[in-house]
Write a structure and sequence with these properties.
The protein has about 600 residues and is of the alpha/beta class. The chain has 17 helices and 20 strands. α7 packs across α14, α8 crosses α13 and α15 packs parallel to α16. Bound molecules: adenosine-5'-diphosphate (ADP) and magnesium ion. Adenosine-5'-diphosphate binds next to α10 and α13.
Length: about 600
């Protein structure tokens, strides 16, 4: 141990050999020996012959040999032991720190569910104190206790579990979705199997993931629906327009007129459907107005009564002093019609539907508990029924496009998806509350309009306005729509210059000598969009007034489908009356501007 030979040691004192690193240690030992005749576990550092420092543990006592007191001592070299002990303390401190400060919950539990330890994050996650956790059974943390049994099974089969998604419950009853990973170890001493696990709260993550998946699905179905609906719109424009022209020239008493009216009726119905698809795809061109929801709802109440039938009692409770909202009024009609038809379908025989409005302020607390809501002031429109209500499986799917529980000829599954699309487009929220067997209440929150904008514009209904001989330049790449518009406008006495490409329009304007009063153009055309063409034409003809038409528009002309209210816009498909009114409005407003 010391490196000295026997010969080197015998006859010398330890001091002479310089064995003690701290000579005071020797004095201390001798003092203790003198007092009690004995030392045990006396630790001291000593120096070897080659100068290395070691730690010794000394046991010594005084014994008497030949009437002389001598010290008998046994020294054990505990240098290695001390070194591992220090490492162990360091390691313990390291893992303690991780355990105490981890943001994930860490629990140490027996198979029976008795907690041996839990870190602060674990206690905080479930809302218990460390003391309470000790008296808790781990099974109580699971929404479904069978889930714990399944996990134990995995531990016993594989020795560990990895990222298991489990529904758990806090002390106050709030449900959490957690991810658990852990391992099982058998204690050497007790032979007891112990589970060491890490629990991570993933509630917010899964909620977001759900919303994202939903949004992506909506997006792709929306793109598909929007594309199809756009093509249908052009075809429908032609069908409606030419049918209207044919009706005008058909014998008022003859059978043809009745048939043509049926065609027109069916085509208008088809227009409604494409409009729904476009709304759902959020590609419907909308013209928001600042309006009072109450007025708007009152205007369509008669239609709604008719829609839901006589067996259902309709109750209308308008909120007082309602804040204004900025929304396209036809979208309100669409929302109401869809919600009321659903309410009607949910009522078996007789029942009641209630439409209510009111002002609400959503605060931080409400929003914290309702995913996707943001605080602010909203106008609420609620449609409630005492019909069948919905089970959770149905409730989870109602906004899903094409999800329906109705017969093929009754439901399309697009109603709620459309409502969703409209509400999102207007930066609002939907809340659905439903109790199976009792009823459903659907609440729509639309943001309060706060701009200091102009008064609600009410369009006055007037007789067909005739032309004052103005010249109109018409640009439209769909030939049937071009022909139709030309025919209608000619019939009213306008001079129509009709071309099918922007290039032709630019050429024509350069050569045309007379005045052109109004440009009517499609928005989406192969060579260049209508907006760009209009800008170029206006460079040549300053003061040229413009009117745009489209089945939908892109950002080329509007931002996120919301039309700039300065631009004259005609939604396709249009009826003869729509076109006439829009043209007159465009021409009149232009002259006001000048
Ligand atoms: P559709 O009415 O064509 O089936 P919706 O998108 O309008 O499609 O509705 C989807 C489904 O949601 C319905 O089939 C129905 O099961 C359910 N639903 C919607 N509103 C209600 C309601 N007020 N009461 C009960 N169930 C409803
Ligand atoms: Mg429906």
């Amino acid at each position: 141990m010391t490196g000295f030979t026997r010969e080197e040691v015998i006859g010398k004192t330890s001091s002479l050999l310089n064995i003690w690193k701290n000579p005071a240690d020797r004095e201390r030992m001798v003092r203790e020996l003198a007092q009690s005749g004995l030392v045990e576990n006396f630790e001291a550092q000593f120096v070897t012959k080659s100068g290395k420092i070691r730690v010794g543990q000394i046991f010594a006592r005084i014994i008497r040999i030949h009437d002389e007191d001598v010290i008998l001592s046994i020294t054990r070299d505990i240098t290695e032991y001390k070194r591992t002990e220090a490492a162990r303390i360091k390691s313990e401190r390291k893992y303690r720190t991780l355990f105490e400060h981890s943001l994930d919950g860490i629990g140490i539990v027996t198979i029976d569910g008795q907690f041996l330890d839990a870190n602060p994050a674990f206690c905080e996650l479930f809302g218990y104190s460390r003391e309470e956790i000790r008296h808790l059974n781990a099974g109580q943390l699971y929404v479904n206790p069978a889930d714990r049994h399944a996990l134990i099974q995995s531990y016993q089969n594989d020795g560990y579990i990895k990222n298991q998604k489990v529904r758990m419950r806090k002390k106050d009853g709030t449900q959490l979705i957690c991810q658990i990973s852990g391992t099982i170890q058998v204690e050497t001493e007790s032979q007891q199997a112990i589970i060491y696990s890490i629990t991570r709260d993933m509630t917010a993550y899964y909620r977001m993931e759900d919303q994202l998946r939903q949004a992506q699905k909506m997006e792709s179905v929306g793109r598909l629906a929007g594309g199809v609906a756009h093509d249908y719109n052009n075809a429908l424009s032609a069908i409606i327009g030419f049918t209207e022209l044919a009706i005008d020239s058909a014998d008022p008493e003859g059978p043809l007129r009745g048939n043509l009216n049926e065609v027109l009726h069916a085509a208008k119905h088809a227009t409604e459907i494409t409009r729904q698809l476009l709304a759902f795809a959020r590609k419907q061109t909308i013209a928001p107005k600042v309006l009072d929801l109450n007025d708007n709802i009152e205007n369509v109440l008669k239609m709604i009564r008719h829609l839901i039938g006589e067996n259902i009692d309709l109750s209308w409770i308008p909120g007082a002093g309602l804040w204004p909202v900025n929304i396209d009024p036809t979208q309100i009609d669409q929302i109401l019609a869809n919600l009321c038809v659903n309410a009607r379908d949910a009522i078996e025989d007789v029942g009641k539907v209630t439409i209510e409005t009111g002002n609400v302020t959503l605060d931080e607390t409400y929003c914290a508990n309702h995913a996707g809501f943001v605080p602010g002031e909203f106008v609420l429109m609620a449609v409630s029924d005492n019909g069948s209500g919905m089970e959770k499986e149905i409730l989870d799917n109602i906004f899903e496009p094409f999800f329906t529980t109705k017969d093929v000829d009754k439901g399309t599954g697009l109603g709620m998806a459309t409502v969703y699309g409209i509400v999102k487009q207007n930066r609002g929220f939907i809340n659905v509350y439903s109790e199976p067997g009792i009823g459903t209440s659907i609440k729509i929150y639309l943001p309060r309009y706060k701009g200091n904008d102009v008064e609600t514009q009410q369009e006055s209904v007037v007789d067909t306005p005739q032309s004052h001989g103005e010249t109109i330049l018409l640009v439209e790449d769909d030939l049937s729509v071009l022909k139709l518009a030309q025919q209608i406008l000619n019939g009213l006495g306008y001079t129509v210059l009709a071309v099918s490409t922007p290039g032709d329009a630019l050429d024509l304007v350069k050569e045309h000598t007379g005045e052109i009063h109004l440009l009517i153009t499609d928005v989406i055309m192969p060579e260049m969009n209508g907006r760009e063409m209009a800008d170029r034409l206006q460079a040549v003809c300053p003061g040229l007034k413009c009117m745009f038409m489209s089945g939908y528009t892109t950002n080329a002309i509007v931002h996120s489908g919301v039309l700039d209210d300065k631009v004259q816009f005609l939604q396709k498909p249009f009826s003869k009356k729509d076109l006439i009114m829009a043209v007159r409005k465009a021409l009149n407003e232009s002259s006001n501007l000048r």
